[in-house]
Amino acid sequence: MMLITVMNKIDKAVLLAAGRGTRMRELTTDLAKPMIKVRGKPILLHIIEGLHGAGVKNFLIIVGYHAEAVRDYFGDGTCFGLQIKYATQVVQDGTGRVVELARDFVGQLPFMLSYGDILVDPANYKSLVELPGEFAATVSVKQNEDVSKGGAVFVNERMEVTDIREKPQPGEATSPWYNAGIYAFRPSIFEWTARLQPSPRGEYELTDAVRGLAQSGKRVKAFELSGEWADVRDPEILAQLNQS
């Protein structure tokens, strides 16, 4: 008997754009970090255009620091042929707690989630919006990155996530797979974000929720991104991107 995999096409995306971006120093004094321009366009516009090209038309942007810059630029999305809504993260207490703000927007549908400072070859979005029916989530990964600056993703021989660790310290178990900051989730992730406790860094980490989901018996797929990828974390990386 042939097994048929049901693919769920994702039409909704949640973008995290609330942080202060302190590592950008004076560049974010008067501007939200996701609105910094890379190759002539705000980082957030690159992300939205890439997801729109993959069929996503409904966006929730989580804003906070200099929220007006984001709202003024994108409005309700009409001029981009999209529907854009906003939610405000009042307290900057981590990526895990902020996802809770998307519950009503998501409803019972699967959704994409991207950090607001991640740039990727747009071709990857077409694969990420296709979430196989047997998986509860997809975590994007890259190789040859410093996992101490992000997250180490541990996988089995089928490229399914078994563990994920945020900014592992020297001496901790590590992995060649780096958490690349783009996800696909079913609403079941909210069961795990609701249980989060502060990490040793004092934040509610989305990666802790993903670990709980994966270790509960749900299947979480690791998807290796292809082509160009960048975490626009500091002025040095920004300068490299704008020179290339």
CATH topology call: Spore Coat Polysaccharide Biosynthesis Protein SpsA, Chain A
What name goes with the CATH superfamily? Spore Coat Polysaccharide Biosynthesis Protein SpsA, Chain A
Number of helices: 8
Please bin the fraction of helical residues.
10-25%
Low-confidence stretches: none
Number of domains: 1
H/E element order: EEEEHEHEHHEEHEEEEEHHEEH
What is the number of E strands? 15
Q: What is the radius of gyration computed over CA atoms, rounded to a whole number of angstroms?
A: 17 Å
Largest sheet: 9 strands, mixed
Mean pLDDT: 92
General shape: globular
Backbone structural class: alpha/beta
Please give a structural write-up.
With 244 residues, the protein is an alpha/beta fold. The protein is built from 8 helices and 15 strands. The chain has helices at residues 43-53, 67-74, 95-98, 103-106, 123-128, 189-193, 206-215, 235-243, and strands at residues 7-9, 12-17, 37-38, 41-42, 58-63, 83-88, 111-115, 118-120, 130-132, 137-142, 151-155, 161-166, 177-185, 220-224, 229-231. It is globular. The mean pLDDT is 92.
